[in-house]
Structures are given as structure tokens and as C-alpha cells.
Amino acid sequence: MKLSVNGKDREVDVEPDMPLLWVLRDELGLTGTKYGCGVAQCGACTVHMDGLAVRSCQLAVGDVTGDITTIEGLGTPDSLHAVQDAWVEHQVAQCGYCQSGQIMSAAQLLDFNDSPTDADIDAAMGGNLCRCGTYPRIRAAIKSAAQKIQEA
Amino acid sequence: MKRALLASAFTLMSALSVSAGETVDIVPPAEGSVTTEAALEAWSRIYEVASHPRCSNCHVGEDNVPMWSGPSYGKTRPHGMNINGGESRIGAEAVLCSTCHTTKSEDWENANTTPHAAPRVAMDWQLAPVEAEWFGKSSVEVCNQLRDPDRNGDRTFMDIAEHLDHDLILHWAWKPGGGREAAPYSLQEHVNDILTWGVGGMPCEND
Amino acid sequence: MGRARTIGRRSFLIGSAAIAGGVAFGVYTARTPFANPNLKELQQGTASFNPWVIVDSDKVTLIATHADKGQGIFSAQAALIAEELDIDLDQVEVSFGMPDKAYFNGAAIDAMAGFPLYDNSPTAERVRGFLGGVVKLALPMMATGGSSAIPDTYEKLRHAGACARETLKLAASQQSGVPVGQLKTERGSVILPDGTALSYTSLAGIAATIEPVEKVALRDPKDWKLAGKPMNRVDMVQKCTGTLDYGIDFETEDMVYAAIKVNPRQGGAMNSYDASAAKEMKGVKDVLEITGGVAVIADNTWRAIQASNAIEFDWGEAPYPAEQADHWKVLEETFTEESLNAEARVEGDVDAAEGEEVTGEYRSPYIAHAPLEPLNATILVTDERVDIWTGHQIQMFVESIVAGITGVDQENVHLHNKFMGGSFGHRLEFDFIKQAAEIANQMRGTPVKMTYSREEDFAHDFPRHITMGRGVAKHKDGKVTSLDVQIAGQSVMRSQMGRMGMSLPGPDAQLHEGAWDAPNFNLPNLRVRSYLTEALAPVSSWRAVGAGPNVFIYETLLDEAIHAAGADPLEERIRLMGHDVSVKVLEKVGEISNWNGANLGENRGRGVAYGFSFGVPVATVVEVTNTDRGIKLDGVWVAADVGKVIDPGNLENLGQGGTVWGLGHAINCEITYSDGMAEQSNYHAHEGMRIWQCPPITFAALENSPKVRGFGEPPVPPSAPALGNAIFAATGQRIREMPFNKHIDFV
């Protein structure tokens, strides 16, 4: 089975109903995408398919119809995406385990809405659970990232 | 910006390949063979289906907020996570339904074995049109909506039966998986009831 | 030794080729009976005495052994060392190091000395000092918990940095001939009077031959360059780019994956099972028996979990009441003389006190920790050694337990501690360690990564204990005159330590923590009694432990009395408070919230609550509106006194996060048992707070306390009663049971 992940073609030998999450983590070694609940309750496994956020624990690999971008493909420590940059600026993470998913959801939000209000943020980020409670900083970081994107 | 997202979301939807679900026979009773009484009896069964959580949770009104209700959901409440289907009814304004309710084209009838996971079918998940608001509505209200071409997608009863045959989300109601209670009767029985109700003149209890 | 040795060594050396000419510094070598653990691994002939600082020709490595569950202690430890070492955090590598007695926690015992933590009297300090000495010799334990990591490291690590700095200056003096007094240090170098910079790494070889400096005066905090200001956490970029390896992300060659199924009736037996279908599934290598259940070994985590779900089991009965209602019944019957845990506080005479009575009965449910990273551990057992990669808060006990299971000498069992995706107390437990060890012990030579499914994690979360409170308050002439508080619950400590094979004699102070030590010294009549039962489900430390339920009980009862007296909830709390530091905290929260009474008009209200836990007084104000869709949280204000702020940015994050934690669980979380099993299997039924429910949270830190304190837990206790009190102010409805959504809807 062929997949495009972070701009690279990858070949995996798995059954089509295996969730993309586990293909990324256990087959391709891309562990930035996290397993939290397995039932689309926490959002930690969020990736993009053709630019749209999707919970990779719910997407069977056989049903992948587009290019996949994971947190590792969004930006890197040496070349941060504007959202990641804002996350660092606001020192958002505590345990950090949910933040890959938070950042992927925020990145999609900003792709379609470059000046989100609090209500827009609350609507777009409601599926991403943070047990540590970093929500005030997530909100602030999304607004900073929006500004960075507008100025860029 | 939002328009761009909407457009791409709809592109996704139209790109669906609708694979076969359960096969339904659409054989209406002979013209004139259904009494009003029999049609109303069929209607009461139809309403049992329409008002069942597997159907009504996504047949919601203009606040565009799907519901979580029914056995295995606990106390009735709005869909968690602040989900709003938006005017697009596919969540394009904020979080697409398909973010979690992904499309499972292959072997979709076994797609929903995990309890409490987001249900999946072989098409994009979405809310029913706002005109078809069923959640919390009475039998008379739902009946009048369903027979009103202005509010039922300009469908005859035969069209409604065809719609039940083609729309795989509707098939899911009888195979919800994951410990969820299925809608009553069977898809075929429900289609038969629609046909009976239709041939009997689509009567409602307030006629 | 083969690969296992290589892995252990490489991990210790943190990726460097070798520590050539390495040197390590520390101050506690002179004061502890423990050898410097770094000596074991440094090259022969290399001088080393250094638990926390290693300098080699390549780099400076700081050892930060306290476990990081998200609270930021990894970074804070490095900052404390770096502050005195005169090096920036972007110039060092930071490592968890390897567990050793030299890293014992010297602060955890403070809370167990029998004195409230605000009591700094000579007697209290003498007892703490004595206990500390005993524990250091008898049971030197590495542990991260009880919000003790900052108190433990605050002086110790600055000393370690200062001693390293002074020794490097001696080395520079030897090399350059310039007297030490003329040398300065900055950004990882010793600076000669002519401006020449000798990097620490260039001095490693000479420094290794010098007897380290052991006595250095610490700098005045007002001269701090790094600490005391907002810092960039050293793990932040990795956490924002998906490049930080948590335990669950660990990978090694030839690793296999395991999922487990253990009797969901906690502690019950497995009578029989049928794994024939599972064994036929793709990728499944084996099904192994472990205590109370089985493990599926497969070539991928998902396949292992899928196969584990295909096994049929006959589970034994639960060793506790099968139905939740019976758990509450047990508690109802625990308020008896025979079950008395302690009469923990008696001031005046509550029975004789005058005034009108207010009574209430309060309930705090079982709650899961449910950290977002499901429990996991990777273990490789060979005949000679064991390596474990996981995140744990009691590091050396992990090694001891695994040694017991595998029969390998404890000195050859090595825990490589990992970052944790949360813990909240769950990673103080050992079941997952035992299970992983039992699996790997049956597969010697093969590394096994065991991952709990979320459902297994919920089923086997030793939750927060259930607690019931009964209170009688009295008020007279607009003032609260008396509080009589009775608390019935389980001993978290006995339950937890029982699973570690230890018994806890005497009363458990956690059963009245947060109530007995409420510093309401101006309240003439106060009695706090706690009652103990052991006949319930196994429980564990849950963020803030006893203070969580107890502050809810105490502060709700107090609020009922204040409202009945017609007094102002904040002013009356200030009046009753006899502890200056706490008075200032209450005044501060009043100031930042512009407190002007609890009633804000129809359907709007404010509540305040105070909690003292882990030595930190915290006051919280919550404002709510009662909308047609339910209660909406409009704003929260939190003030706390931690003695000394190390990183104001991180402190604010913890203050807000701890408040979200307290509020979210108070609103909608509980674990209930039916047929002996937890009914909640995933986050849909145990949700906590989400972003749209989270109000703006304003935080203020004070520094009046005489001692520095940790802040991982203290924000939690007052948040729930502050919300309940606000709901009362807005609606007139007094909610005495958590979760509140059993009684009122929330937006």
C-alpha cells in the first residue's frame, strides 16, 4: 500500500482497516502523532489529509485518499511553522502530549480563518483535550500565530 | 476564507464512491390497497424510527448542534466537543464532521465495532437538512414535514424510499455498532412502511 | 555484555562518544553517605564526585533526576544549576540521568512530620530535621510527588552549580596562572582579566584532577540572571514539533509490542480464558499469562490491542462491593468511634459553641487520573541485566520491583526514565511495571513495549478515593463561630503503599489534609475528625490527594455558614484567617478580581474558596452566569504564595492548569463501579474541561512564605468549592456533591 506522508512516498504492508495512527507510529516510526483515546475523543492523533484535519485513529489506512501531513511535516525544530513558533513563544506545553494534535488543529483553523475570534477558536479546538489545562495559552498562541501569518 | 473550506469540503463529498450497502427491495403495495388506517399504522412505526436517537440525533434544527442521546449515551445532551454542523451541515465552518466521522469505504459495515468511537460509513458524515428537524418533534410535526415537498427535498414517497436505499448514513441507523441501540424494525421494514404510508395517501394524525 | 550493556551505557552518556577527561561536580558528596553515581560510568583515571554536573571536552551535561510529568521540573532543575554555573540553557544538555540513592528526595518527608507546613516553629523544624536524617539513612528514596521537587532541589542544585563553577575557576587559574579572585564566569566560560574566554569544556581535563570546591555561598536571588524570570523550557521546542520521545514513543531494535487484558474488577482473579481466535489474528506472536490476566504479543500495538479484544474471559469477583451505591453505604457507616482515624484538630468547644446551626453532607467521588499518554513500559530482560524505558515517579522502586520479578540483581536493573504525557499520580503506581516485567521475563532477550489501551487504562486506574463529609457550622451576630467537620474515606496511603508491600501504621494524615490544617486561627471553635474504612476499591494519590475532597468539604460548609450569617464570603474568610501569608493571598485574590461581593445580580454570582496544601496557600474566585443552557464560567482569579518563584511563566501555566483540572473534574468526572467494574471506559464519560468551557484565568503569585514550595498540586483544592460557591451565589442552589453536573447543567 502506498502513502504520501510529509511529502514522501511510503510503502507499507498492512491490512487496510488498520488506523492511520498506528501505521504512522508503529510502521513508519513517526511517533509525533499521539495515541490518546483511540475513539476520536481527545484529538491527540490529529493529522492533515490534503490540508484538512482528521483524527488518524479513526481513519483506516485503506481509506486514505490524499497527502498526509503530520506534526513532523508541519515544521521542524530548525524551521518552525508559525503555529509552532507561537506555541514556543507562549510556552504553551506542560506535559505536551496533546500538543501535536492541538497544533495540527490550530494550523487548519488558521488556514481558513486568519483572524479567529475566541468563539472561532472554541469551535475549532473543542475536540482537542488537554488534561494539563493549557487552554488559556492555546488561545493566546493561536492569536499570535494569526498575527504572524498576517504579517508574513 | 470560509468559503474556500466549504468548497473543498463539498469537493470531498462529491468525490465519494458510494459502495453497496444493504440491498433494499422497493416494491410498493398495489394502488388502492392501503386503507388510511393501515397507512397511519405504518406512519406510527415510521415515527418510531424517525424519533429514534440513531436518526433524530442528526436531524436537528437551525442551531446546527447534533445531539447525543439514547441508551449508551447517558443523559441527553448536545454532541460533545462543542460540535456545530454549521449552515453547511457538514461542519465546514469549524470542525468538519469528517474530521472524526471519517469515510470508511471498504468493509464499512464492520467499521463501527469499537464502542464510543465516531461512527463511520462509506460517505461523508453530515447533518440532515435543517428543514428535516426531527429531534424533539412530535409525530404530527415530523409527518407533515416528510410529506411536504418544500421541506422534504421535493420527494415523492417513492423518492423517499429510493433515498433510504442510496443514503448509507441511513443504513447505518440499523447497524450502528459499538454497543449502540439500532433503530427499530429493519431497513427493509422501514422502506416497506414508507411505501405503505405513501400508497395510503401519506396521511398524518392531524388530517 | 552485548547489546543491553551498550544501550544502558549509551543512554547514560546521552549520545556522546565518550566522556573523555570528564569531571563532575557536586556539593552533597560531603554530606551524604552515598557514592557519586557518575563515577561508575566515567573513564578510568577521571576524577569525579558529581551527581548533577558533568563537563567533558564536548559539552556540559546537567543531571535533572526528578520525573517530569508536565510540571516543568526537568527545565527548572537545569535552571537552578545553570543559575550558579553561569551557563545558558541553550548551552547544556539536560538528562534524567540514572536512578541512584544520591538523588534521594530530601523534602518529601517534611509533610509527614505531623506539623502543618506553615508551622516553622523550632520544634516543628527539629522534628523535620530529625526525620529527614533518619529517612536519608534508612530509606533514601528518589521520588517526585507531593509537590516536593522544588523544595528538594532549590538549594541543592544551586549549590551543585556553584561548586562546579568555583572548581572550573580553579582549573582556569591553574591553566592560566591568573589568581582565582581575578576570574569571572559567564555563558559557559571562565573569563580572564584580559577578556580571554576559556570554555568550561576546554577546562574539563584539568578540572578533573582538582579536588572539587564544596562550600560556596549562594547568590542572593536579587542577583539571579535566569531564575525568577520567565524562561524557555528546554523541552518546549521538542514538544511543539513532535520530536520529544515519551515512554510510549521509545523504539529499539527487534522490539515486539504487547497489549494486556487484566480483570477489570480490580485485583480479581482470572478464572479462565480462550485466546484461540486471538492467536490466529494477523501479527500475533503469542499470548502470555500475567497476574490477573493475559498479554498479547504482536508485531504492532494496534494488532496486539485488536487481538486482546478477541479473547474471551471468565473473570473472578471483585474484592470490594460490586455496586457503587454500596460503596457510599460503607462510607455512611464509617462515622463511628471504632473507625476513627484521628481527631486531628480541636479548638474551643464546637458542641458548646453558640449560634444558629447549618449542616451539610458532602460527597466526593472516585475519579480517574487518565493522563493522556496511556500507561506503557518497554522492558528488555536478559540473564545479566534489565533495562526499562518508561516514565515513573518513584524511580528506584521500579528497579527493585523488576529485580524481584526477574531475579536479576537490583544493581543490574536500570530504569531509563522518560518524559510523561501526564501522570497526576497514576505513575506512582506499579501495576504496569509489574505487568511489563512479567511479560518481558517470559521473553528474555527480546525488548517488549507494553501499551495500555485507553480502555484498559480507565479500567485499571486506581482512582482518587471517595470521600464523604459531614459538617455542622454555627454562626452568630453575622459571624461564623464554629465548624465541626467529619470526614470519612479511604486511606490512599495505605492502599498505595500496600501495593508496594509496605504497611502504614497509625492514622493517615491525608484523610484530613486540607481541613485539619486550615489556618482559621480566628475561628474560636473548630474540630476536624477523620474516619477510615478499608473495605472499598483500591485507590491512589490523585493530584492534591486528600486536600482535594477535604478542602471541598471544608470550604463548602464554611461558605454555607457565611451566607447564613449574612457575611461577605471573602471578608469573613479574611477575618477568620489567622495566618498572615494566607490573609495576603485572600486579599490579593480580592484585588485582582475586583471583589465586590458574591451577588452580581440575577443569575450571576461569585464564589471564593481557600485551600492550604503542600505548604502553599491558594485562594480562588470563580464567576458564573446561570444561562438557559446551564452554568457558564465567566472568569476565574487565583492567588497563591509559593515562597519564591523560580519561573513565573511556568508557575502561571501550572496555576491555570491546576485550576482547569480542579474545575473540570468537579463539573463532570466520576468513576462508578457496577458489577465490580468501572463504568467509564474513555473520555466521553470522563471528560474534564475543554477549551470552550475554559474561562479566562487570572493568576497572581506572592512571595511572602518563608519557604519555597512546589506548585503542581496546590491550585487544585480550592477550585471546586469556589465553583460550587459561585453556583450558589448565582442560583441559590447549594451543590454538595461532585461531579456538579449530576445536579445542574453546564454550558
TrEMBL record, chain A:
Leading EC class: oxidoreductase
GO molecular-function term, one example from the UniProt record: metal ion binding
UniProt lineage: Bacteria, Pseudomonadati, Pseudomonadota, Alphaproteobacteria, Rhodobacterales
PROSITE patterns reported for this sequence: 2FE2S_FER_1 (PS00197), 2FE2S_FER_2 (PS51085)
EC number: 1.3.99.16
Pfam families the record matches: Fer2, Fer2_2
Identification of the protein by name: Isoquinoline 1-oxidoreductase subunit alpha
Gene3D superfamilies named among the record's database cross-references: 3.10.20.30, [2Fe-2S]-binding domain
PANTHER family (alphabetical): BLR6218 PROTEIN, OXIDOREDUCTASE WITH IRON-SULFUR SUBUNIT
Keywords, comma-separated and alphabetical: 2Fe-2S, Iron, Iron-sulfur, Metal-binding, Oxidoreductase
Domain 2Fe-2S ferredoxin-type: 1-74
Keyword Metal-binding: yes
TrEMBL record, chain B:
Superkingdom classification of source: Bacteria
Protein name per Swiss-Prot or TrEMBL: Uncharacterized protein
Signal keyword on record: yes
UniProt keyword annotations, A-Z: Signal
Position of the signal peptide: 1-20
InterPro entries assigned: Multihaem_cyt_sf
TrEMBL record, chain C:
Chain segments annotated as coiled-coil in the UniProt record: none
Pfam family, any one: MoCoBD_2
Keywords from the UniProt entry: Membrane, Oxidoreductase, Transmembrane, Transmembrane helix
Positions of the Aldehyde oxidase/xanthine dehydrogenase a/b hammerhead domain: 241-319
Molecular-function GO terms, alphabetical: isoquinoline 1-oxidoreductase activity
Record EC number: 1.3.99.16
Signal peptide stretch: none
PANTHER family, A to Z: ALDEHYDE DEHYDROGENASE (PTHR47495:SF2)
Name of this chain's protein: Isoquinoline 1-oxidoreductase subunit beta
Originating organism: Cognatishimia activa
Lineage, broadest ranks: Bacteria, Pseudomonadati, Pseudomonadota, Alphaproteobacteria, Rhodobacterales
